[in-house]
Each structure stands twice: as C-alpha cells, then as structure tokens.
Amino acid sequence: MSVLLGKDTRVIVQGLGREGRFHAERMKEYGTKVVGGTKPGAGGTKIDGIPMFDTVAQAVDATGANASIVFVPAPAAMDALLEAIDAQIDLVIAITEGIPIADMLKVAAVLETAATTLVGPNGPGAITPGQSKIGIMPAENFSPGGVGFVSRSGTLTYEIADLLTRAGLGQSTCIGVGGDPVVGLPTPDAVRLLNEDPETEAIVIVGEIGGAAEERAAEYMRAEGKKPAVAFIAGRSAPPGKRMGHAGAIVSGNQGTAESKVRAFAEAGIPVANAPSEIPGLVKKALRR
Amino acid sequence: MKLHEYQAKQILARAGIPIPDGRLATSPEEAEAAAKAISAPVAVKAQVHAGGRGKAGGIKVAKSPAEARTAAGAILGMDIKGLRVEKVYVERAADVASELYLGITLDRDRRRPVVMLSTVGGMDIEEVAASRPEAIARGWPSPLLGLLPFEARALVFAAGVAPAQREAVADIARRLYRVYGETDATLVEINPLFVEKDGSVLAGDAKLDIDDNALFRLPELAKLKEVSADEEAEEKARALGFSYVQLDGDVGIIGNGAGLVMATLDAVQRAGGRAANFLDVGGGAKEAVVKAALEIVLSNSRVRSVLINIFGGITRGDEVAKGILDVIEAHPPRVPLVVRLSGTEAQAGRRLLEKAPLESRATMDDAAAEAVRLAKEPARA
Which residue of chain A has the CA closest to B243? Predict the structure, then answer.
C-alpha cells in the first residue's frame, strides 16, 4: 500500500445515518473492505448487509478493523473520535463538519499519546486509488499512480485529481486533511508521510488561506524533501478578516495570508500554480528533472 | 459570534474577575442616571461589534452625570465602521496606575490554547507582537487540564508583573481560562487590564468571541447573537446550509465546496474582475439549491454577471444542468449567467445547456474570463 490505507485496510463506519449509508455503499462498490458499523443498541443486526455493533471496541474485536470512518453529527463527534482512539484503531477518518474547536483541541491532546492517525475532520477522507477509498470523494476522478496529494479542500481535491488523471498522472494516496482550524493530521504531517513513501514520486500540496500549515510544510520539504513537489493556494483574492466557507480559511491580521504561503513554497524551491489547471504541467515538468 | 463589552464583562464578573461598576444605557437620560448611581467620574463607551472604538470617538470620559448625558448624546447614533451605535456602557473611570494585557486564543500551529500576558497593555496586541515580541509572555496549557496554578505563576513572572499584583493577575488568568473553556471562546481578551493606584487589578475592557459551532450547547449565549444589516444575507444563507460572504466586486459566484469557490474567486481576479461574493452551496446542487443560491447572489444589486462553478461529484453534472435549466426557465435572472460544469457527467450536462440562454464553458479559467467580460458590458435593456 501507499500510505495510510490500502487493499487490506478493514473499515468500520461510525454513524450509519443517511449520509453514512450512502457513502458506505459507494466505498464497498470501490472495493473498500467495509467490515462493520457501530450504533448503540443495534449490535447483532445488519444495516445494508453491514454487521452492526454496539461499541467500537466490540466491532474491532469481532472484525479486526484497523480503520474507521466517522459520520457522527458534530455535537457527538468528539465522543465518537475518542471512542475510536480508545479502541486503538490505526486510522480514523472524520468527515463531520462543524465540530467545536474546543472539542478538537481535546481530541488533539489525546492523540499526542495515542497510536491513532486521525484524518479530518471536515474533509473528504483519503483514497489510495485502485485499492481503497475511505471517504466521500467521487472515485471516477482518481487513478492509480505516483503522485501523492494533500489537500485542505473537498471539491477542489476532486477537481485537481480529475485534472491529474486526465493528464495521465495517477495518484499514490490522496489525503483530504480537512478545512477546520484544528485537524488530526495537519498538512505538514501528511506531506511527511508522502515524502517517506517509496511509491510516491511527486507531491501536490493544495493549501488555502488561514493558519501556517503550508509554511510548515514548505519548511519541512526544504529541509527533508526527497522528491519534487508542486503547490497551489486557494483564496489569494480573499480579503482579510472574512471566513471563506471553511472554519479554518481566514486571514487574521497578518497571519495566514496567501502571500506568506506562496513565499514559503518559493523559498523551498516548490513551484506554485496560479490556477488548478497549471498543476499537471508543473508536476510533469518537476518529474522530468 | 462576538459579544459586546458589557456582555463579556458580566460573564467575567460571574467568574470572579473584578470589573468597574457599570450600567448599560440606550438614551442620554439613562446614561445620566447611570453616572449618578455610580457617583464617580465615568467612561461612556459605545457598544458595537468593531475594534478601534476609542480612535473613532466612541469612548468619552465624563466627570459629572450632566457630562455623561452629553457624551452619550454624542455617541449614540454614531457610525463606527459602518455600524450604528445603539447603546453605551457607562462605567466608573478607573484610577489607572498601569495597564496590562491578558488574552487567550487558539494557537493553530501547536493545536493548543495560548495564554498571553504582557505589561504592555492598552495597545493592539498584534502590533506589540510585531514590534516587541519579547514583551509578551506565552503559555500553552493542556486543553485537558486547563491553566494550572504553576503555569499561571510562570506567566506572571515571565511577563514581569510587579510583585504586589502577581497573585491577583495569576488568579485572574486562571479565572479567564475557565471563561474561555466554559463559553467555547475562540478569543477572550482583557485589554487593558488595569492596575489602579490603590494596587487593585480589574478589567478595563473585555472582548469575547464565541465559536459558532458550539452555540448548540450554549443556549444562553446564543440568545445574545445580533445580526447587523450587512450580515442579513449571510444569516439567510446559513439557515439554508450555505456559506455566503459578501465582497465588493460585481461578478456573483456560486460553487460547491469552500476550496473550489475560493479558487473560483481567484480565477475571476486573474481574469481582471472582482467577485461580488463567496457562496458555497455545500454538497449537491439540485434545483431548489440553485434557485435559493441565485436569489441570494442577485439580492446584491451590484452583481452584473453570475458565474456558477459546480463540480459534479456524487451529484451528476447532467442533474445539475437540469436544475439550472428549470430555475432559469421559471425565473429568468436579471443578469447573464456563465456555467461551468466539471466532474461526473459534465459533458452530458454541458450538452443540455447548449441551447439555454446562458454561457457554458468547459474550464474554470474560461468561465471566469467570460463572466468578467459580461460584467463589464453595458447593462442589458
């Protein structure tokens, strides 16, 4: 497998409501091993053919699951994430949007001493094309290959994956880290995974205004980069002080500006695309070097 | 969500943080009565959700109830950064010996709260951070444990607080951290934190911003939400599950997904135009969604063209196209539309749009250029 997920990853679904059921079905179609679901009180039953369990620990015991995808609504999401971390699941992917920051700070503090990698929340999930998809992305836009891809956005990720696929540039693993100010696997950590992955030949980093994750990722690649990278920053025209859809996409004072991020990538020798349409060309150019 | 100073101060006072005696007033007469009850020189302070009130003339000191009445008369109705002052807070003017800064916010990099304390008070903390970073002491408490006594002490020593005030300031820092946690604050700030000539420490100002995502569990605070005139469209959009931000250009934007919409705004700027708004319709783009989104965008009279950029993912491009066609047949828009569909079944969608009274483009860059061109054309009859 590339990073985080592959053909042997066994997934449970936390929160099999309307959205959870829809996407569990799409994941199964893609070939993802969806081995169970949790819903307190539904243990022993099946939903859409998926065996249900009362607790995450029971589901892990019974199915050998090593990954979970969380659709639980925001008010109860922290509890769902902590339950998955407590059950020592390797990979937890949180799709939920709108989790309070204070809850994510607690989850992040618990993660500091846990074995779990949390991707999200408020992201599309992750996909290793041709092997496993744990997320809500439309699979048609992705194809197997050597480009590792990290993004803070959902649809923009699909758009860029589509552009890469059409240009004949398949992807190793695509990681949607999520649009919240506090996420489990921030951009620099996701970039590090891909930098150390032997199956990834080049890295595409899609960032946006707000925070300093792109600057940290650029610093890391400048010091440790083993392969070429290409970046894109969304929100270059956004005015300061306005939250652009994502809770984390806001320029506060002089913090989080697109200029700062573009400069950081330039200083690390990483070309920055002016538009998503430029990304495939820049990747090809970088790979030819 | 922002609270007013008087609301934030009530919350601080409930947490045991000393504040000057104060009263809210909505008329000069009430301000006069408030000053009389306080029976000391007072500060009359505009209560608006904007920074820089002092510089804008929204804070005046009054030595007598009559002066408080005059001051309130001047401040009430005043326009501060586009916001009309509807109420003033009248509070005892502190007998200030020195001013400190105390604030707690999120450190995104460290994924922890950061507590900041400085003996340089009363100034914009970002300016202090830029010009004299060493003047700010910082601590990063565990969100699981809160600000511990030793951490509060360490801050007070690092900031160089005078010995006589150390205990009081450390105590206030711990109480403020509890406010931060209990109110799901994204920012809580006491600036300035006054040291009076008699040595007492009290909050001169208070700023409290609440995480909107936590309002579901803060029913009392949620009631304090105020929507100003220019936020009405944003609130209406939020109720529909959209995310809308008004900007100052003339190209209306509708898209799905925050990152894609941001990239669309950027494409409009690169094409030489200016976006009138940010509008993310979220997942899916069925007819009802497109209709509601168009209504919101066109409610801004400056809009001269609308660019719809939808990535058909789980929702197919042909279904999106049908939704757009149904809407414009039933409600022909007053400005030209440019539609760009991509992703699943996008070609089928574009074929459906071929005969429609709109411009369809295959790429984001082309669509942005066309929308900008149309916005610059003379208005249609």
Answer: A245
